Amino acid sequence: MIYVEDQTIKLNGVVLPGLVKSIEVTESAKVDEQEVEGSATKPKQATGYEDAKVNIELIIDDTQSATKYQRYATLRSIFRKPGQSVPQPIPIVSEDTAAHGVEKVIFKKLTHKGESKSGQLTASLELWEYIPQTITATTASSSSNSSGNSGSGSSAASSSLTEEYETYLSTSRGKSPAVDDAETAAAMNRVAQMPY
Fold this sequence. Notes:
Blueprint: E1 10-11, E2 14-15, E3 19-26, E4 29-33, E5 44-49, E6 53-60, H1 68-79, E7 90-93, H2 95-99, E8 104-115, E9 120-129, H3 163-170, H4 184-193
Antiparallel strand pairs: 1-2, 1-7, 3-6, 4-5, 6-9, 7-8, 8-9
């Protein structure tokens, strides 16, 4: 069989090796369903959009310059470079993804299947759209504790504690049996004698 290499899909600046058997781009909306007591139907509320999913299936064959496994290694190096511990967003260039406005993706999954009859590899790529999130940091203003107790280190977080709990935190709640009236060596001996 004669295959013509498809030069239309680039991932991280690299043309995907092999013949593109299929490419599928899926976009969907986020919809929440609510349980309403006594109602058979569930009201639906649209809350946004899911990131697009891109699935590509390639047929990789031996060529005069490289074996199918050497060509597959190209995909593996795009998926995970040596020393890489976290997937990074990478650019994708394709007419199909451009039609959906997908420019950057996270390489989510890479699988291959060998076919003994044809001597080819079928590689499947799962890519998820990457949309960077901008997070603006704000500084928390310090507020004084309304109950007047400053012994528990009053801050915006501790102001939500009840007065009874704050009183409990500020009182002496006892000591560890390992350090009660004991010097350091004796305390460590008591710790060693405690059951696990």
